[in-house]
Amino acid sequence: MTNAEPLGPHADLSAVAAGIEQTNELLQRVLAKVSTTPSIHAIFVDAGYIYAAMGRLVAGEEDRRAFELDAEGLIEAFIDKARTIFPDSRLLRVYWYDGARRRLHTTEQQRIAELPDVKVRLGNLNANNQQKGVDSLIRTDLETLARNRAISDAVLIGGDEDLVSAVEAAQGYGARVHLWGIEALTGRNQADPLLWEVDSQRTFELDFCKPYVTRRTVLYDEPPAGSAAGPRPGREDMRFVGARIAAQWLVERGRDTLAELLPGHPYLPGSTDQELLIEAEGLLQRSLRGHADLRRALRDGFWDHLQAQL
User: Fold this and answer.
1) Which whole-number Å values give the CA distances from 176 to 33, 41, 166, 277, in the listed order?
2) Residue 299: CB partners within 8 Å, gap ≥ 6?
3) CA of 67: how far to CAs of 41, 209, 211, in Å?
């Protein structure tokens, strides 16, 4: 019988070397897979911030009724800018966060939702036209996509300090968050804690914003002498306009919201009365300032329709 030779240190080294080689081959395959996997980015837009910041910068107004925003052109510009910053990355989609009464899309929001690669997410809009729940929607989407490795980079366009938690959550899962903002006339329109947390910052200045904002031609003062403002409306005309606006608001704002006005009849809250006046001036294309009789008829028509429907 031939005695087997004992395993020596050289045999042990050979086994170790073979193990290392096998591990290296596995790592090379993993790295090759990673290198061929495209990066993915998404753009998260707080529409409330966009309207306020761009309106103030370009039109001198934060009120959306005072200007029109070319949302389609602006979204395309954001996509193009991201394409240049992340040349090796693919766009997942643009998330457009806005508020709406009872979360029912307005006509404008419907048009935005129909754009390719855009998803509209709606929070609520209270009686004071303040957005509610938008920040939590951004946090949920940003955190979920980062946790599932669906994105490697997130572009956040907003300014609220409440978004800090969303940034931290996404970064905790390895995503990089890039904050984009709109130039402020004075100071800043983005919270310092938010600026401190993100991985990079970028500001769009006036020249970039100008093409996407157009002032509306709502007349807040009496038309200049010689302008074609049309004949002065009568009381019945104004009652009809008031009823028309009430019908439109019932659809847009919901019966429950407008029912809250009934206990105050015949008086409207100051902010609501102002909205009614501006809406009527827009429809008539003339000012009602200084015409107390026409404004009373406007309110009467508004109340008549509201009480008949509720």
Assistant:
1) 21, 9, 12, 46
2) 242, 266, 268, 273, 276
3) 31, 13, 12
The tokens for 151 are 């994105």
Q: Locate all alpha helices (DSSP H) within 121-261, ordered by sequence.
A: 134-147, 164-172, 192-197, 206-209, 235-253, 255-259
Whole-number average pLDDT of the chain: 83
Sheet containing strand 176-182, strands side by side: 131-132, 118-125, 89-100, 39-46, 153-157, 176-182, 200-204
pLDDT at 90: 95
Among candidate residues 139, 287, 166, 309, the one with its CA nearest the CA of residue 224: 287
Q: Assess whether pLDDT exceeds 70 at residue 54.
A: yes
| pTM of the entire predicted model | 0.61
Per the document, the length of the chain is 310
